[in-house]
Amino acid sequence: xxxxxxxxxxxxxxxxxxxxxxxxxxxxxxxxxxxxxxxxxxxxxxxxxxxxxxxxxxxxxxxxxxxxxxxxxxxxxxxxxxxxxxxxxxxxxxxxxxxxxxxxxxxxxxxxxxxxxxxxxxxxxxxxxxxxxxxxxxxxxxxxxxxxxxxxxxxxxxxxxxxxxxxxxxxxxxxxxxxxxxxxxxxxxxxxxxxxxxxxxxxxxxxxxxxxxxxxxxxxxxxxxxxxxxxxxxxxxxxxxxxxxxxxxxxxxxxxxxxxxxxxxxxxxxxxxxxx
DNA sequence: CGGCAAACCTGCGAGC
DNA sequence: TGCTCGCAGGTTTGCC
Length: 276
Prior knowledge:
By secondary structure, this protein is of the alpha+beta class. The protein has helices spanning 4-18, 41-45, 129-132, 145-152, 159-164, 174-184, 197-216; strands at residues 23-28, 50-56, 59-64, 68-73, 79-83, 94-100, 105-109, 116-121, 248-249, 253-257, 259-263, 266-270. The chain has two domains: 4-132, Alpha-Beta Barrel (N-terminal domain of MutM-like DNA repair proteins); 145-239, Helicase, Ruva Protein, domain 3, CATH 1.10.8.50. The structure holds a DNA duplex.
């Protein structure tokens, strides 16, 4: 599910109910997600006050007053839900439950369990393996065409694959890679290193635009993603190419139909006429 | 080292 | 109706 806009939506939903609150209880309903929960996971969190909720790429970073950081990744199907009143019956995939000092219940649900949670001292965060190799954030501030072009220059792979490479730019996933390339008029099959100059500028702007609009829409709800409030995101209604194989291209209209191909194991949607 | 397929796991829709 | 197959928003691993 979650690419940068969805994780940002989760971050914005969790911040008001977590920041300044104490984690009174942490309940693990199983011993692992993608990885086992680390030893002492619950003990490190319980009784601690949350000082901030942040996002880096697709990772949520919840910092505690002990200067420990809870690192959470939603994988493909993870979601957080907030319950202010009496919570509904537990779902089989409600794997982690947090109860705050305001008596708010926060549940982490993840059917596929590709997500994970870990703890790391704040001082060691920069060396955390999954964080240390991440490329720059693409929004806030926006990545420049120059920086993007420089980072794509060393890639021999197609530009679509390069956008999914979190060490080139952080936070872009399959949907927004397809959408950004369409907006920029760049073929997903084009060699990444050839996206330079004006093309790199266009792509950088497209990435920023699509991500900013998706965040405003609360992300894209295809299947699992929900805002922590329970509301659906609605950016999926704005997809130009993703999931639209066989439909007319929204730009050249009657001409080409949206094509679907597979690149490094992931579906790519594009218009072979508008994207070069 | 770079690039790609496979692996991790569950659920759902399409097709028979 | 019921089964099997393929595919899904991510990341790491291992194999050329």
